[in-house]
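Format notes (please read before filing issues)

Several people have asked whether sequences and C-alpha cells are stored in separate files. They are not. Every record keeps both together, in the order shown below: the sequence lines, then the C-alpha cell lines. Line labels are part of the format and must not be stripped during preprocessing.
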Amino acid sequence: MKNNILNNKLKWSLTLLFLLFLTLPFACETILNEATITGKVVNGETTQPVEGAFIRAIGFSESVETDSFGSYTLLLSIEDPEIDAVTLEISKTGFLVDTLQNIGIELGGTVKARPSNLMPIANLLPIDPDGSKAIVKGVVVDNVFFDPIEGVQIRAIGHNETTLSNELGNFSLSMVIKIDESNVVDLIFSQEDFVTDTLLNVTLTVDSTITLPNKELIPANRAGPPSNATIVNVTRTSISIQGVGGDEETSELTYRLQDINGITLDRFRPTNVTFSLFGPGGGEFISPLMATTDADGLVRTALNSGTIAGVVQIIASFDPGTGVINSAPTPIAIHGGQPDSAHFTIISTLNIAGLVSIREATVTAILGDKFSNFVRPGTAVQFQTKYGIIEGSDVTDENGRVTVTLISSNPLPLTSDSGFVPITAETKDENGNSIFAIDTMLWSGHTQVQMVGFSGSFSIVDGGDETFTVRVSDIEHNRPLEGGSTIDISATVGSVSGSTIVPDTQDRGPGTTLFTFTVQDDDVGDIDSSLPSTITILVTSPNGNVKLEISGTID
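Then the structure lines:
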C-alpha cells in the first residue's frame, strides 16, 4: 500500500515535470470572425498522449477529437466580438471529464492562455478500477417561498450512497465511481412532504466537489381550504384578575386549522384568523386580534384579564372564501385577586351545647379581593380558636369560601368568658401582610325551664283563656339553648298553642329564652263544674331534655 502511494506521488511529479517541458506556445490564428485553438490532451498519470478525446468549447457547437499524438485544433465561429475567453470541456470513456477554463482568444491576434502563458494542455485522469470519490453539494428549497427543506433524501441512480439535507437545506453526497461506471449520474430527491424529483445528467468530478444550483421541490399533499379551527392547547383554564401580576393574568390559546379531509394547513396555505371574546366586561382583552397560521397550521392568541371575575368565551374565526367559519367557544375563568381585609368575613354556628358534651360546628371564611370579586380558588386560610379544637387551615373554593370544623373539647371557656369562644381566621393580602377576621361562638350549658310570673296554679273560666310565660335557657349563663331545640306544650284539658323551635342565637329575650303559650277552654257553655288540667312543658335539646308540669282548672 505504501509503495502504491509512493509510486502515485512519483507519477504526479513526473507528470508536472513533463508538462512544464512541453508547454511551448502554439499558434492561434484568427480569420475574420473565427478563432483557432490548438492544444494537447495527455494521460494525467502517465503523461502519454490520449487519442480520441472529445473537445468542445462550452457555449459553442463546434467540437473536435484528438489525433494519435493527443493533439487537436478547434476552429470556433465568434459571433460576439466582445468574447475574449472560453472554457473547454475534454472527455473520453475511462477518464474523468476535465475542463480548461479561461482560455484566451482574440480576433486578429494569438492565443491568450489564461491564467498563465502556458498552452492549453488537458490532463485526463483515468478512473480508478477500485473506484474514486466524487462529492456533490447543493441546497434544496421549496418552489413556493424558496425556503430550505430539511430531511430530503438525495441519492444517485445505480449508487448505494445517500444523504439528507439539513435544516438549512444543505446536502453533501459522497459517491464512489468505478472504472466501468460513468461519471454522469441522475440524482433523485425525495421527502414525504414534497413530490419526488430527479435531476438528470449531473457530471461528477473525481476527487473533487461540484456545487449544484438550488434544487426546487414541489410540495405534496397540500391541504385544501380550511374548514375548521380546533383548540389544541390552553396554557391556563383559569387566570387571576388584573393586578395580581405575572403570568397568572394571561392564558395563551393555540388553534389548529384543517381542511375538510382533516389535513392540517401548512406554510403553503397561510390563513388569517381573527379572535373575539365574550366576558364579564372588566377590561379583559385578547392579543393579537388577528394572526396567521404557521407552517404547522397553528395560530395563537392570548387572553389578558380585567378587573372583574367571571367566565370568558373565546372564538376563533376565519373566511376560506365561502363565508366566515367559527370555532367552538373556549371558556376560561377569570378569578379574583389576593384577599383584601375589607372583604374578609368569618361566620360560624352561633350556639352549640359545648358546655354539655362534645359538639361539632362549622366555621366558614369568605374572602374577596379589592374589586369585590371572590379570591382565586386555592387561597389558603388559617384558623385558630381560644377554646376547643379547630381544623388548622384549608383553601378557598370557586366562590371564595373555605369551611372547617370546630369541636367543643377541652379547654372549655372560662367562667369570665360567659361561654363565648373567639375564633380567628388569617390569610395574606396582595402585599404579603397578614389580615384577620374574627367571630365568636357561644357554648351553652345545661337546660333549665322556669315559669315566669306564675302563682303556682291557674283557673280558666268557661270560654276563657290564659297566657303563660316560660323561660328556657342554660343554667350556667342564662343563655339560649342550642339552635334546633324544641319546646312542646300540651294540656290534659283545654287547647294549647305556643310550641316552638329555638333558633340558632346568642341573644336573651322573647323568642330566644322567653316563650309564651296560651291555654283556653275548648268546651264553651258546658254545665259541668271546673275540671283539673295539667300543662306539660317538654324541652328536647342537646343541652339536656327537661319536663315541667303545672296544674290548674278549666271550667
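For reference, the curators noted about this record: Residues 1-31, 109-118 have pLDDT under 50 and may be disordered. The chain has one helix and 44 strands.
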